[in-house]
Amino acid sequence: MESIQSIKQRFEIIGNDVKLNRAIEKAIQVAPTDISVLVTGESGVGKESIPKIIHSLSHRKHAKYIAVNCGAIPEGTIDSELFGHEKGAFTGATQTRSGYFEVADGGTIFLDEVGELPLTTQVRLLRVLENGEFLKVGSSQVQKTDVRIVAATNINMFEAIKKEKFREDLYYRLSTVEIGLPALRDRQEDIHLLFRKFASDFGQKYKMPTIRLDDQAIQLLLRYRWPGNVRQLRNIAEQISVLEENRIISAATLSSYLPNATGSNLPAVVEHNKKESDFSNEREILYKVLFDMKSDLNDLKKLTLELLKDNDTSKVQEENEGLIRKIYGDVDEEDIEHEETVPTKLLHLPEPVMEASNPTLTSQPQEDRYHFAEEIEEEETLSLQDKEIELIKKSLERNKGKRKAAASELGISERTLYRKIKQYDL
Ligand SMILES: Nc1ncnc2c1ncn2[C@@H]1O[C@H](COP(=O)(O)OP(=O)(O)OP(=O)(O)O)[C@@H](O)[C@H]1O
Ligand SMILES: [Mg+2]
Prior knowledge:
It contains 22 helices and nine strands. It has helices at residues 4-10, 18-30, 49-56, 78-83, 100-103, 119-131, 157-162, 168-174, 188-205, 215-223, 229-243, 251-257, 267-272, 282-310, 313-319, 321-328, 333-338, 350-357, 360-363, 366-398, 403-410, 414-424, and strands at residues 37-40, 65-69, 108-112, 133-135, 142-144, 148-153, 177-180, 212-213, 248-249. Helix 9 crosses helix 11 (229-243). Residues 263-282 and 330-381 have low confidence and may be disordered.
């Protein structure tokens, strides 16, 4: 059996943490079998190496290894991607196509972000896991395949099961063996080691002297929560390697690269007191307001559409009571008083501010005003997107990369947040 050490070298895995070693050891042990494996751990902990280790140490190593990011494939095409389709199965299906399960026959499929699979696809996957059978989309002819599945997720699968977003039977079928990777903050011994390795790699890559941390910077490095784990550490080592002229890095310099790490502010403390009102400055509150506005606008669009379709206001009112309350609030006098403290009151701010800072606007002829307004609107849309990105990033940081918590803080669904993360490449 290949040693843990040589596997680490082969797959460029850095670290000596006991839990990391245990995870690699488990991967080596299960590799020769056909057991399904579920790799778990926070975002950026290095889950993608595990299925590669398993495949390369298995009897399937000469057959195909296909990695599929389940969260990145649109819901409408995922069945066809995985299982193939027949000619004419849907508009645009001009030819019969093989899916990954057919192509990878004899090999391994890595289903990354498996928690994002739509429920209908989960049913197909369960069948293929149970007896190797599947149907192409649009076909009634059962096909056989022999594929080993390794899946990975960074979400809490029990939560997903509870919310009926993930089938319990499939979860147990996928996780015959679970390999958990530790968060970077729980691998204290490895943090500086990883940083030195990345600093040396990037020094070579950019042909600059390797950066080095002074003692206090090392302390900060060890104390930080690393919500984005090894991926975040690597990115930061790269940024500092490229941007800092002085190659000895102080704690102050390092902290300027670490979100939520200024001064004595230990991110862990911030984390515990996390509330909506914890947005660190006014700007952030305004972003939040803009973000809420966008979401209200979407709700309004939905409501208008319903009205247009049904033309029956009382029915629509009845059916959308929750939505209406969300947008307009309770009409109670008392409640309006209370809402003074809620940031949504700021909704009224932008318009007068804009007019006042553009005195030329009111003196322009009607037509010019219209064009000017259009330009402003376009610029605002762009900057609104930037704000949205920043807001999402901050919320993810605050919530240690946990999408569920971030989504609920932002008041959007997890799936919407996930799409935005993909869309903006966060
Ligand atoms: N122990 C390690 N040694 C060296 N590099 C590592 C280690 N762990 C992770 N990395 C690097 O960190 C980055 C993130 O790892 P990876 O893509 O496997 O994360 P992940 O767990 O799949 O995260 P996500 O859930 O967000 O997909 C990669 O560039 C990977 O090479
Ligand atoms: Mg990954």
